[in-house]
Structures are given as structure tokens and as C-alpha cells.
Design goal:
Blueprint lengths: L3 E7 L1 H4 L6 H14 L2 E8 L3 H13 L5 E5 L10 H8 L2 E2 L1 H12 L12 E4 L2 E6 L3 H11 L3 H8 L9
Parallel strand pairs: 1-2, 1-3, 3-6
Antiparallel strand pairs: 4-5, 5-6
Length: 164
């Protein structure tokens, strides 16, 4: 099965064209090469909760994505609101994935404990918050990439439970 994937970058500077979105490129490469996914939607929005929420909902409802990966807005700065926006629109959290990503990143840098990214499910879509740096994106996706196909198979109903 080819997974339909959306990438959402939350960045004030990126949305104004003042910064190149290299993190999204890392996501694209890893998803296409390692997951065999197809990027069906990509966009950059400012660090505004309502805009992040609207983009996530549209990617789920209109583009019918199986997976959405966000980058940016997961830190401690006042404008870092991606986790709050995600929590507002998901039906259920998947805390183990966020914990695994933070734990793997902690092996590289103690600052990983400051990441507030969450993972959750809306409908039949898995949404994952990743940091805004290309290095952080790579480390976080590497930590969960081997479990993504199984998780997506369960969420989309292809597998009925973890024994399939």
C-alpha cells in the first residue's frame, strides 16, 4: 500500500519566505525512500494555532492522508504552539511514539527533553509533531520509522489488531 502523507511546517519565517524549509525536505526524502509514501500535500503556515489546526484538519478531511508529519513549533518559545494545535484536533494520543522519539534524541543531545511534540490520531490519520531542525527531524523519524507501517496498517483498518 502506498501511504498518503502530508507535511506541515509551522514557521513564521518560513511562511514569509525568509527561511528555506530544509526540514520538510528531510521528511520528504525519508518518507519516500524508507516508507514508500507519497507526499500528497505540503504547506508552510505561521506559528498560529488556528492556522495549524485548519491545515491539519484539511489534510485529514480533504486530502485523506494516512500520515501527517509536522515540523517546527515544538519547543518552549511562546510562539511554539504546534502541540497545542495538534491536541485540539486529534481524537486519541499515541504517547509511546512521542516518548520513543524524545528518548532516541536524548542519546544525541540532552536538549531533546525540551521538545513538546505529540503524536495522535484523527479519524484514520496518524499525526506526528517533529522538531524544526533537519537533524531533529532525521533523529525522530529514525526512532519510529520501523513501526510506522504497522501503526498505519492498524489505524487505517488494514490490520485489525497488533497480531496481524
Amino acid at each position: 500500500m502506498i501511504w498518503r502523507v502530508g507535511i506541515l511546517t509551522a514557521s513564521d519565517k518560513g511562511s514569509r519566505g525568509e527561511r528555506e524549509d530544509t526540514s520538510a525536505q528531510v521528511i520528504r526524502e525519508l518518507i519516500e525512500e524508507e516508507l514508500g509514501g507519497e507526499i500528497v500535500e505540503y504547506r508552510i503556515v505561521p506559528d498560529e494555532k488556528d492556522e495549524i489546526m485548519a491545515a491539519l484538519i484539511e489534510m485529514v478531511d480533504y486530502y485523506q492522508t494516512h500520515l501527517i508529519i509536522t515540523t517546527g513549533g515544538t519547543g518552549l518559545a511562546e510562539r511554539d504552539v504546534t502541540p497545542e494545535a495538534t491536541l485540539k484536533i486529534i481524537d486519541r494520543e499515541v504517547p509511546g511514539m512521542a516518548e520513543a522519539m524524545r528518548a532516541a534524541s536524548m542519546q544525541k543531545t540532552r536538549r531533546a527533553m525540551l521538545s513538546r511534540g505529540v503524536c495522535g490520531i484523527r479519524g484514520k490519520t496518524l499525526i506526528m509533531n517533529l522538531p524544526g531542525s533537519p537533524k531533529g527531524v532525521h533523529e525522530n523519524l529514525d526512532a519510529v520509522m520501523d513501526q510506522l507501517p504497522h501503526a498505519l496498517n492498524i489505524i487505517t483498518g488494514r490490520f485489525k489488531d497488533h497480531n496481524d
